[in-house]
Amino acid sequence: MLRSTLAQQGIPVYSVAWDPDSEKVLYTAGKQLIIKPLQPNAKVLQWKAHDGIILKVDWNSVNDLILSAGEDCKYKVWDSYGRLLYNSQPHEHPVTSVAWAPDGELFAVGSFHTLRLCDKTGWSYALEKPNTGSIFNIAWSVDGTQIAGACGNGHVVFAHVVEQRWEWKNFQVTLTKRRTMQVRNVLNDAVDLLEFRDRVIKASLNYAHLVVSTSLQCYVFSTKNWNTPLIFDLKEGTVSLILQAERHFLLVDGGGIYLYSYEGRFISSPKFPGMRTDILNAQTVSLSNDTIAIKDKADEKIIFLFEASTGKPLGDGKLLSHTNEISEIALDQKGLTNDRKIAFIDKNRDLYITSVKRFGKEEQIIKLGTMVHTLAWSDTCNILCGLQDTRFTVWYYPNTVYVDKDIFPKTLYERDASEFSKNPHIVSFVGNQVTIRRADGSLFHMSISPYPAILHEYVNSSKWEDAIRLCRFVKEQTMWACLAAMAVANRDMTTAEIAYAAIGEIDKVQYINSIKDLPSKESKMAHILMFSGNIQEAEILLLQAGLVYQAIQINIDLYKWERALELAVKYKTHVDTVLAYRQKFLETFGKQETDKRYLQYAEGLQIDWEKIKVKIEMEITKERERSSNSQSSKILEQKF
């Protein structure tokens, strides 16, 4: 039964393709491509795609990219908005077929006596010239390792994807045949051959381990020993993604997401409503030692966060929700679980960072940069790099945005990236080596300064003296700025003072000195929190410690008059102090009181500055005594 006629026109439709959500249909109309939504009255997207009749289209569900091929002898790659991402050189004959590999990383192109394998960005990996006539249709196997082509001479051509390469530090692994891998150690030119029982489907090389999945089994090799892999059976044959972290790795197949240790022990399998594993890729899933992050497909503004050890949602099951659709996510790899950060790029190409474990108040999502196309965390420390418009940017200490936004620009390293041409992609960030793939497919290796990574190491081990010595040796402003932010984050104000002095932030040095003179530990802690902009947390800390006057005073210092009066009235203390400071403030600017609450409490109240000063002195003395009493009780406890 005919359900509906989507479109009618006077020219043949040579090819159609569903969109990833099966809510739109892409079809050809002469030289035009048309995207027609199934909902009635929805806007139709149409554009001229080729100079000749379009013969074939394909739309991939994982990367959401469109392929088209036509009689103008070209194939092209488009995004789902109809923007051209890649335009091939003209072939000798019309391009008669194109097809995406299931994982969206490769596609195949067929023409007369021609079969071509290409990367998702368009550049060509391999060209074969089989004697087949025109290849009219191409189909990929479910695992993405084989191609079948329907040929004009009545034959079917079969092809296998080989010569794939993986690199990590001094190791290079090449898939030489369907069931054979060659491992080369470039330091001593040693070569090992790895033989498998079944054909290799996916592999990943990172963190001193090679993980290989075949159609039935998973092999885990250590780079220290290539002879005895750990082998276990897979639940389902077709692994579509392998992700590695330092302690474990993640396998994604048609049935689910599975986390294994490098000893082959099953750890967990996170699940969420409406999970579709077939469309997950390295941009939408991220793994660290303690966390798994997965972008939701049903609502692309949401990231699900799971505990790696249990597979359960983090904390109370809160989701990470953003205002715009998210296109790429990445978890940092080092440090404590409580400090874990996630960076993500949204559809506007803005880069944001937020904390995975959001304590107390909702941790804010902070923008780090604009026009960011690709990003990667270092595998050895929490340094982030990205390609930002025409610049390559390294965020040496991204956490600075939570500690001191003023010095954040001083913690960046930037260099010109115009040499990478259009749409480059960061492949890996290992140690201080960044590998970038250019638009033409060539790899570009770039080294960044090794010193920030050493600084991270010292700070993580609380070797503050060594950190200061390193900064004095390097003599770079970025290093001092990073150290200042790290010291404040770790509450080491002595180091912070030295670092701020080195970058000329004299006002902050003075403020740190004033913190040192405060009478109690709670006051010092509250002012350190204020230094980082956490005013609400500072106030809560003081109120919990019973230091009500100090909580009122920080609001007066910040001109938060409403909150200062609210606290004074609530705790029935220092109402006259708040009114006195308010009056002095208004007199300074020559203004009259207009706030009804202040007018109400000021009625019939005589402000006596002498009395107020005595009260303040008493509060400070009381705080000092309390602090010294608690210290002496601690000393007694230690003695006993």
From TrEMBL:
The lineage of its organism: Eukaryota, Metazoa, Chordata, Craniata, Vertebrata. Keywords: WD repeat. It holds the Pfam family Beta-prop_IFT80_2nd. It comes from the Eukaryota. Residues 479-625 form the IFT80/172/WDR35 TPR domain. WD repeats lie at residues 47-79. InterPro entries: Beta-prop_IFT80_2nd, TPR_IFT80_172_dom, WD40/YVTN_repeat-like_dom_sf, WD40_rpt. This is Intraflagellar transport protein 80 homolog. Residues 163-451 form the IFT80 second beta-propeller domain. Signal peptide: none annotated. Gene3D superfamilies: 1.25.40.470, YVTN repeat-like/Quinoprotein amine dehydrogenase (2.130.10.10).
